[in-house]
Amino acid sequence: MGMALIGPGFIDLDALSDIDTGVLGLDHQPGWKKGRVWPRDYVEEGPVEMLTPEELAFQKRYAFAHLIRNGITTALPIASLFYRAWNETPEEFASAAESAADLGLRVYLGPAFRAGHSVIEADGTLTVEIDAARGRAGLDAAIAFCAAHDNTHGGLVRAMLAPDRVEYWTADLLKRTAGVARDLGVPVRLHCCQSTFEVETIRRSFGTGSAEWRHDIGFLSERALLPHGTHTDREGLRIIADSGATVVHCPLVMARHGAALNHFGDLRRAGLRLGMGTDTWPPDMILNMQIGLMLGRVMGGELDSPSSADLYDVATLGGADARGRPDLGRLQAGAAADIVVIDLAAHHLGQVRDPIAGLVASANGRDVRTVFIAGRRVMSEGTIPGFDFAEAHARAGAQFERLVAQYPRRTWRHPAVQSIFPPSYEVTRT
């Protein structure tokens, strides 16, 4: 393979699995004014599916190919529910299982489900509504999916439970979800400790912090995967660490929202289990490692912690350990043959003396050349058999524009698209 790093595949515990509308928020805030929260009149009208089954199937396959392209060999997908009628469906995830198996990606799959959502009232007030019946129905559908699809396609497809954000749940339903995960032997991922709104909602609803509440209801365990951990205090992180749960570190998407884990070095030394996630475009684990290193040093005020090896370990061993998979995240006898070859000879990398430090200093996901998953060569020299990146990119762009065109319908006061997402500079024509 020449001048290359040959290492274990990356494990993405919060893997982008759609055409990411989250990038629209980079310069367009606050989100509740930009179609990221449903207005009251849209809720009363009846939310609709803004993507067809064919579009949902395409975006999973498109995203899965890009995960492989970036050296991710095990993925736990995440997609936005903002443009869904309510939950993801078992049918679309049955299709996703087929796409993953065809491409050769190792996945943990389960339709996301929720018991509540945010609403913007006519006067601009932000509220949370809970629909416990819908939450129970979503959990039941997820249980049925797990029964039908866990450990299929030669073990390449496993199941998980994916309840939506912590502020959209009742204690009884979250407790039941954790119990089901234990009984089925599957992971359960819950986005939490990720926003000021969440912190205020949980305290208003339950009189305590998010980590404390989840501990009190018995949700936390070694099966729990918790993106993002940026909005809690040291006591909350200690509670999570003591439970054996894993915080899923997604530094890129959180840095875009002005937040960072506080802080990587101390938390690892305190025994907190950490894994990595991409969560947004680009699904570039190397970029997330780079940002994680820089933010870790800035937040900790330390010149040498975290190290490049620390981030590499979390992107490989951290995810494997979070899943209780000693056969993943490492190259050794008895491990699955998930192998990634990263080119270190390219001139844009500059001079490379230590391969791990060189990776974290200068490389990116486009430097991944060849990927093996479970011993199968799924990508060679940037090419995935049966997948045309140029054709898929064009189709994804058209699908993205169709979705953006629907934003006024579900945006507060229904402004035109040009008002929701104005250009960075005024466009003039002569």
Automatic annotation (TrEMBL):
Q: Work out whether the entry's keyword set contains Ribonucleoprotein.
A: no
One GO molecular-function entry: hydrolase activity, acting on carbon-nitrogen (but not peptide) bonds
* InterPro entries per the UniProt record, alphabetical: Amidohydro-rel, Metal-dep_hydrolase_composite, Metal_Hydrolase, MTA/SAH_deaminase
Question: Superkingdom of this entry's organism?
Answer: Bacteria
Q: Which UniProt keywords apply?
A: Hydrolase, Plasmid
- Domain (Amidohydrolase-related): give its ranges: 51-378
- The answer to whether UniProt assigns keyword Hydrolase to this entry is yes
**So what family is this one in?**
Belongs to the metallo-dependent hydrolases superfamily. ATZ/TRZ family.
Family annotation (PANTHER family): AMIDOHYDROLASE-RELATED DOMAIN-CONTAINING PROTEIN (PTHR43794:SF11), AMINOHYDROLASE SSNA-RELATED (PTHR43794)
Q: What is the recorded name of this protein?
A: Hydrolase
Query: What organism is listed for this UniProt entry?
Result: Rhizobium meliloti (strain 1021) (Ensifer meliloti)
